[in-house]
């Protein structure tokens, strides 16, 4: 298992996140895509995973409503997958959300992205619904995790 360093970064690192995103996902997006999506959001969280000081993954989230945090995006470079980096990013986001008194963490995942679905379920998320994504022509699986017991351990 990789021992990645998870660091919280600010909006100045959106170009780095954009580059990582474009190495992981298709279609590619520009910096403005991320800036628009995060504009006006409360409690934005930008995490970057580094291995040997090289960025290998990221996670982005924001407040969906006062009691629920939304894990918007999580990605790891293909060359660094299956080393536990995504687990470390998701754990860091979960802990951060619990420490900031959110009661739930919500995520959406395309049905075709089975590894992240498995990770979410293994991490204590429940499938709470499905919705059609007309942009990608695929189902999105809606996942939620109750955070009330996270800090009690």
Give the SSE map.
Elements: E1 5-9, H1 14-24, H2 31-38, E2 45-51, E3 54-65, E4 68-76, H3 85-99, E5 104-110, H4 114-122, E6 126-133, E7 138-146
Parallel strand pairs: 4-5
Antiparallel strand pairs: 1-2, 2-3, 3-4, 5-7, 6-7
What does this structure look like?
With 153 residues, the chain is of the alpha+beta class. The protein has a domain at 5-108: 3-Layer(aba) Sandwich (Aminopeptidase), CATH 3.40.630.30. It contains four helices and seven strands. It has helices at residues 14-24, 31-38, 85-99, 114-122, and strands at 5-9, 45-51, 54-65, 68-76, 104-110, 126-133, 138-146. Strand 2 (45-51) and strand 3 (54-65) form a beta hairpin. It is globular, with a radius of gyration of 15 Å. The model has no long low-confidence stretch (mean pLDDT 94).
> How would you spell out the order of helices and strands?
EHHEEEHEHEE
Broad CATH class of the domain at 5-108:
Alpha Beta
Through-space gap between termini: 24 Å
Shape: globular
In CATH, the architecture of the domain at 5-108 is 3-Layer(aba) Sandwich
Low-confidence stretches: none
Tell me the helix content: 25-40%
With helices defined by DSSP (H or I, 4 residues minimum), what is the helix count? 4
Arithmetic mean pLDDT: 94
Coarse structural class: alpha+beta
Strand residues, percent: 35-45%
CATH superfamily of the domain at 5-108: Gcn5-related N-acetyltransferase (GNAT)
CATH topology of the domain at 5-108: Aminopeptidase
- Please tell me how large the radius of gyration is: 15 Å
The major sheet is characterized as: 7 strands, mixed
Strand adjacency order, main sheet: 1-2-3-4-5-7-6
Q: Number of DSSP strands?
A: 7
